[in-house]
Specification:
mainly alpha; 2 strands; 414 residues; 3 domains; globular
Length: 414
Amino acid sequence: MNKRNKIILIALFFFFTFALIMGIYLFPDEEPMLVHRGDTAPEKITPQQPHNNGLDAVLKTESPLTVSPVNNAALAPRADDGTPKVNPYVSYPETLFELLGIDMNELVEERDTFKNTIIHVEWMDRVNEILKDLDPEKKEAIIKNQTSLLYMKDKLNKAYLTGKIDHETYIKALADLMKWHQKTYESILTGAEYEALFEISPEKVDESIDALLEASPEYSFILNQEIPVEEVKEQVQGYKLEEVNSHFKKMILDRDDIGKQINAGEMTLEQARATLNKSQQAFIARCKEILTEDEINTIFGSVEGLESGSTKTEAPKVLGDTDEIELGFKIENPETSIDNVTEKIDKDKIDDIKFFYQQRDMERDELIEKLDAGEITAEELENISSEMDAAFEENCRNTLTNEEYQLVFGNHDN
């Protein structure tokens, strides 16, 4: 994957999504309005009321819904005095709201919880680093759109993992969600700001997103590299693949829930490790019940491949939050696996990086508490957070050799 695609995925919180689709183990006082790109004023529309059978009707259609949120963006927060105030930088994809049964009131109430996630904080760190002189109103719009995205992406993941929407619908909705979100940045930023942030021109983004999702496998648990997916489907009965897929998605949903509990401070890493292992073992056991040994070999390459979640010839890449669970810190180099790190870096050094990483997270949580209490401003939080990141990087560079640093964090100069 090239760098600009990685940037788009990072911006869109697709660490989890990319793991899901590419391998085994991404308002009360806001009245929607249509966004127009021309000089005419936006056309006001009535907020869509929920229907009792709205989501069911969408899910029962013979062909999956093609979502087009780019043409159905909505905006216009109200001022505190109750009078409408059009904000051209805040928009929402109406069609996804209908597909996922999203309520605008709940979105506004709950989206701020995503401000505390590492994904959001790290993306805003990039925004602040690249766009140092960004207008405060635009920055606030980016925060609202980013946290709204994370909220909607969470709903989309859950709808797919719980079987409420099928794979084709999921991929179409995911593509449209990504495209909508990039359009919000296009409306917020100048052309130069956009290209600096994403390292790609706006007119090439849709094509890039389509290419990313074009080869998304329906059965992402298939590990065997020696047999094409179509041949796997011929050799293993369809109902068995569907049943394995159902249990696989249950395991991914468990991982997502574990990550949320860690972020909320409701689960320790030790508890998370135990819970994650229990979920993995349940998946493995169900596969052994459903499949013959020959079918396991066809899908996973071997029984050992099923049990380890990897092929014999390739170490498993870092997926979801497994690096933070296993090591205590995030591996930023997408070409590095957890096995690579544990094999090539001394355990004492790994423990040191874990300490630096978790200390930074703890200090960042304290900053967020101070922000919520009104003790510091958002600008002060961003400045202090940037200083903390610089200190973390310096500590890591002083602890690791250059080769070890590149293994974990990649080349930040590229």
